[in-house]
Predict the 3D structure of the following.
Amino acid sequence: MFHELIPISKQMGICVVSYDGQSLELAAPLAANINHQQSAFGGSLYSIAALAGWGMIQLKLNEMHLDCNTVIGKGEVTYKRPVFDDFRCRCCLPESYPAFASALKESGKASINLEAVVSVDGKPAMTLTGQYVVTKRPETNRDTR
């Protein structure tokens, strides 16, 4: 899904590690995302975190059989420590998810705040809190998921 819909994810080497219905974990190699200081490029960390939230929503939309457009409307990031190795990012559904899903089904548009965390040795290295806006697409005979 990522490589087809978000082609830069392929160049970044992003892959899905796990999905259990409540959380999505992505991984990427340092080599494809390295900066001049031999650590992970901040833009790559932001990108994998934004994709973890976007991917979580896409998976939940597929489960609900909804065809929607999802965009990140706002993102606030905090960098806490450098990343000097291949990295992973996890996004978990918040408690507000049922209200979001209900609003989306009823009105065709809803937004949700998701947090995605890149961790190093079990400690957060970077956190993105993103506001994702989701809008149902008009009914068509095509499946774009």
In short: The chain has four helices and six strands. The chain has a mean pLDDT of 92. The first strand starts at residue 15 and ends at 19.
